[in-house]
Amino acid sequence: MNRIEELLATTKLNDMMHKKDDDQKTTVLWILAIIGAVAAVAAIAYAVYCFFTPDYLEDFEEDFDDDFDNDFFSDEDEVQ
């Protein structure tokens, strides 16, 4: 009978030790899940911001290119 009690005590001790490891694993898993969710929300917010922000530089470049092309080349420089 002493042998069975020893075996049961050892089994309970092993269960307690493994349960502590499982608690640590679930805690790490929850932390990583929260960090992933925050990163996903930030990425979506940035994508929406970039999509709705107007591109003012594009309008400016079009006007500048037209003036530059006319001033740089003259009619005398053309090759016939």
Automatic annotation (TrEMBL):
Q: Membrane-crossing residues?
A: 27-49
State the name under which the record lists this protein.
DUF4366 domain-containing protein
Q: Keywords, A to Z?
A: Membrane, Transmembrane, Transmembrane helix
Q: Does the keyword Transmembrane helix apply?
A: yes
**Protein's organism:** Coprococcus comes
